[in-house]
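Typical record was shown:
=====
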Amino acid sequence: LENREYEVCGHAVSGQDAISLCETKNPDIILMDIVLNGPLDGIETSEIIRSLFSLPVIYLTAYSDEATIQKAKITEPFGYIIKPFEERDLKTTIEMALYKKKMENELKESQDQFRLLTETLDDIIYVVDLQKQKIVYMSSSVEKITGWSKESFYENSDLWMEMMLPEDRSKVISNISRIGAHDEDRKMEYRIK
């Protein structure tokens, strides 16, 4: 790692040591073995690190059996490298993980800005999953304007159409037909006037 100009901020042999290092050193990325000394294995340690610090973890391990991979997958690692490994593979995986983390941070920042914007407007803004025909996001202003709780909209899939001005309903139905309800990834945003 040092030959590749990475700074190694610490080495831990147990899960608790790894968690402590994260607290004191704030690393950019963690290379984690599955087998560690002490009561926590690498997968359990990664779960704790992810929940406390939201740091990317790359597993670097000799274990490639299906059960271990399935257990590790739940922790959403940024990579899984089987020992023995090539230095080139390690570098590539680290670079990809750092890039992915950067993109996640930018996405989260964008989502936070969107949420701040929609929560400060006096208009009702909502996002509808067209496949499921249900609201997946509703701004807080809905409670002030309609008197109904946000939860009532999440629970009742018909309310989002009832909130629309009657003259807008036909446009919305036309847009839904045009896009096609089979397209699971598409969402449409509407603002109540």
User: Anything to note?
Assistant: Strands lie at 30-32, 57-61, 79-82, 125-129, 134-138, 187-191.
